[in-house]
């Protein structure tokens, strides 16, 4: 088919006779399409096989109706006109290929319906008004549902079970059931998702789904327990010859495979997706296993000037149990105090009682505190009871009954002593205290010296220095304690700032008691002047910089600008015994020249 034609037209004059003139032109003829062709399916019957587990919205097959027209006249729309009473399928048009795509609107179920026969219609979107109606064509589509391995299906999504608290271990709580919807009807095994039962309080029978107790339950701790039970298909394979489960690595808390009579029961093909889950809500039923007790620790206050029959305290009780018929508490005094002379109780009719005083002669001096034991019993089966104690304090109150003081005040009780005897006892106590004070004072005075030290001892604390550097490093140059001790001259005391390499033998004194101080000082002076370890001029001083503040200066400063002939080395003799030999070598001779030896 052609949409365009090129026509060449020639024109001649003189009627087309010889000798006439002519001219040509080209004419383009374009054909405009009209919808004069109906859509036509390539075949009248389409057959598809769709698995039952195909997801909703996924394509299950394609059909196409061809149209010889072009452009808008060739566009068609597809519809299902018969065979889809359950509205399981839908068909849409692909704008690019003009194909009809068959999709799922609802899930398929092989066990419910195995095949579908649909009648599909293709119709042009535009039609020629002269034709009176749009062009159409129909085709038959047969769909076969393919059986797929589906997970087990529980009989209901949620199971509600109940069990008594404190029921013994292995008590059956209830049963969950699931079946394999496939035609094969494989066996189902049950497991508990341990992430929902961290304390492992329940077990489930893998074969029949019976849930039993693994631990006793306490309603007062948890009233409800929600666990998840999973169901999976199993198959039987022979294990003779040492074969084992196909996928022994996949397990939950219980093993997924069990050996029994050479038959291994395993998950089919190890397909983990074929698992169903159901929620099991377990309610713990209450039993009367808790005794009632006071709602709080009561402490009542009783006025000394209170009236008989006055309400001291209103007491109520609580019970952790929750009986169906509600709580009812009975209060009574212990048998030993049924004829209590001080207090009584009255039932208020609302599970509370009032404690009343029987008289008005309560005194703190006589008894400050009372303890009233009360037995509280519930209406459970069997009934439970407990003994609770109410503490009652006797207090001083105002005339209006307002508590002012509950402490025991000091009272002088008659003990058979007269006022004179009490005064005598008090005087004795005071006298004893005075004696103790005097004794302590005398002991302190005895510790002080009775004789004042002589002037020589006093002078030891005050030292005057006139020598250079006194008080810095040479604080022991003249030790007065040594001067006072004649025996001190028997030993030589080295200088503190320099550890000597050579020590002189000590000089023996004439006697321990005939020491001349001047002679002792002269001996020490001679030893210091001839000490080879002593530095020149002065003791070692500590300065921030080397040589600063010293007459000798730094060793690097031993230089002169004078000539060799003008050198004078006589000062070397003044540097002490260590430099005496050096001074002799460089000393100036009598002839005015340096002598070398």
TrEMBL record:
Topology of the protein relative to the lipid bilayer: Single-pass type I membrane protein
Record-annotated Cadherin domain positions: 2-41, 42-154, 155-294, 294-416
Pfam families for the chain: CADH_Y-type_LIR, Cadherin
SUPFAM superfamilies in the record: Cadherin-like (SSF49313)
GO cellular component: adherens junction; axon terminus; catenin complex; synaptic cleft
GO terms (BP aspect): adherens junction organization; calcium-dependent cell-cell adhesion via plasma membrane cell adhesion molecules; cell migration; cell morphogenesis; cell-cell adhesion mediated by cadherin; cell-cell junction assembly; homophilic cell adhesion via plasma membrane adhesion molecules; morphogenesis of an epithelium
One Gene Ontology term of the molecular function aspect: calcium ion binding
Subcellular location: Cell junction, Adherens junction; Cell membrane
Protein name, entry field: Cadherin domain-containing protein
Naturally occurring in which organism (per UniProt): Oncorhynchus mykiss
């Amino acid at each position: 088919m052609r949409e365009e034609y090129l026509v060449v037209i020639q024109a001649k004059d003189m009627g087309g006779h010889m000798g006439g003139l002519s001219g040509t032109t080209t004419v383009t003829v374009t054909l405009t399409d009209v919808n004069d062709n109906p859509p036509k399916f390539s075949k009248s019957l389409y057959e598809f096989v769709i698995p039952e587990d195909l997801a909703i919205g996924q394509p299950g097959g394609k059909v196409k109706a061809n149209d010889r027209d072009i452009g808008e006249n060739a566009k068609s729309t597809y519809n299902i006109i018969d065979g889809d009473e359950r509205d399981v399928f839908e068909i849409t048009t692909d704008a690019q290929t003009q194909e009809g795509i068959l999709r799922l609107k609802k899930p398929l179920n092989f066990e419910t319906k195995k095949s579908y026969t649909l009648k599909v219609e293709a119709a042009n979107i535009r039609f020629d008004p002269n034709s009176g109606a749009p062009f159409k064509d129909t085709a038959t589509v047969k769909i076969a549902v393919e059986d797929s391995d589906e997970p087990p299906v529980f009989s209901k999504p949620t199971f509600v079970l109940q069990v008594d608290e404190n029921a013994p271990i292995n008590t059956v709580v209830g049963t969950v059931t699931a079946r394999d919807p496939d035609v094969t009807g494989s066996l189902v095994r049950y497991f508990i998702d341990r992430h929902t039962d961290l304390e492992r309080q329940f077990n489930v029978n893998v074969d029949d789904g019976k849930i039993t107790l693994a631990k006793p339950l306490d309603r007062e701790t948890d009233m409800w327990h929600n666990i998840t039970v999973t169901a999976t298909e199993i198959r039987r394979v022979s294990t003779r010859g040492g074969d084992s489960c196909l996928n022994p690595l996949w397990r939950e808390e219980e093993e997924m495979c069990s050996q029994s009579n050479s038959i291994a029961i395993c998950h089919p093909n190890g397909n983990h997706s074929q698992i169903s889950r159901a929620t099991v809500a377990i309610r713990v039923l209450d039993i009367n296993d808790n005794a009632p007790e006071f709602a709080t620790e009561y402490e009542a206050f009783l006025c000394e000037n209170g009236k008989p029959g006055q309400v001291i305290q209103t007491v109520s009780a609580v019970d952790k149990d929750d009986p169906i018929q509600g709580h009812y508490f009975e209060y009574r005094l212990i048998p030993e105090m049924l004829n209590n002379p001080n207090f009584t109780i009255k039932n208020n009719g609302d599970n509370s009682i009032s404690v009343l005083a029987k008289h008005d002669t309560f005194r703190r001096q006589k008894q400050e505190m009372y303890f009233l034991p009360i037995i509280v019993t519930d209406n459970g089966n069997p009934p439970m009871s407990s003994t609770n104690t109410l503490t009652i304090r006797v207090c001083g109150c105002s005339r209006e009954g307002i508590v002012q003081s509950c402490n025991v005040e000091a009272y002088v009780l008659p003990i058979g002593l007269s006022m004179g005897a009490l005064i005598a006892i008090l005087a004795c106590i005071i006298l004893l205290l005075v004696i103790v004070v005097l004794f302590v004072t005398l002991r302190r005075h005895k510790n002080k010296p009775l004789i004042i030290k002589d002037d020589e001892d006093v002078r030891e604390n005050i030292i005057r220095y006139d020598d250079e550097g006194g008080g810095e490093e040479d604080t022991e140059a003249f030790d007065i304690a040594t001067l006072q001790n004649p025996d001190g001259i028997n030993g030589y005391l080295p200088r503190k700032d320099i550890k000597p390499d050579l020590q002189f033998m000590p000089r023996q004194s004439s006697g321990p008691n005939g020491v001349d101080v001047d002679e002792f000082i002269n001996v020490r002076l001679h030893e210091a002047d001839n000490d080879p370890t002593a530095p020149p001029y002065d003791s070692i001083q500590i300065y921030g910089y080397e040589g600063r503040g010293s007459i000798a200066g730094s060793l690097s400063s031993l230089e002169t600008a004078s000539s060799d002939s003008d050198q004078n080395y006589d000062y070397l003799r003044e540097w002490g015994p260590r430099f005496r030999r050096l001074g002799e070598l460089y000393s100036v001779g009598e002839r005015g020249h340096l002598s070398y030896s």
